[in-house]
Write a structure and sequence with these properties.
Elements: H1 8-24, H2 28-45, H3 50-65, H4 69-86, H5 90-101, H6 105-119, H7 123-126, H8 132-140
InterPro entries: TPR-like_helical_dom_sf
Protein name: Tetratricopeptide repeat protein
């Protein structure tokens, strides 16, 4: 079906999936544009739909790849409560990464701890860019 004939949900889903494909090809900037278009469409037409939160979560994650940390934080916060109900961690990972990159380590620790509480030692696989010792230090503050 042609894009212009699809409903808002289908259009947003297609744009997000295009973003996923572009990201897998290493085209992070193009992926962020596609995710951004999906996010704008979802904000305008799908705020009460689960796909809105899924899109905002994915958009935040790709913004990390583009080092657009403040925008990533804003997108991830939109999906935070919804993801908790789904037992998902992507928005928390985005918030932890963005805050850490911005030097807000104490703020990042809060989300690293939540990830650990939800995933246990799975945090090491979820955040492979961090040394194990660094992650242990980041979650130790609440133990």
């Amino acid at each position: 079906m042609e894009f212009h004939r699809k409903n808002w949900h289908e259009k947003a889903f297609d744009l997000a999936n295009r973003g996923i494909s572009l990201d897998m090809l290493g085209e992070h900037q193009a992926a962020a544009c596609s995710w951004g278009a999906a996010a704008e469409l979802a904000k305008a037409h799908l705020r009460d739909d689960d796909i809105y939160f899924w899109i905002m979560s994915g958009y935040g994650a790709i913004l990390i790849q583009c080092q657009r940390y403040q925008e990533a934080i804003e997108a991830a916060k939109e999906a935070l409560d919804w993801e908790a109900q789904q037992n998902q961690i992507l928005s928390r990972m985005t918030l932890a990464r963005a805050l850490y990159a911005l030097g807000a380590v104490d703020g990042a620790k809060f989300y690293f701890q939540q990830i650990y509480d939800m995933q246990g030692d799975g945090i090491f696989a979820a955040l492979p860019e961090f040394e194990h010792a660094t992650l242990k230090d980041l979650v130790r503050f609440r133990k």
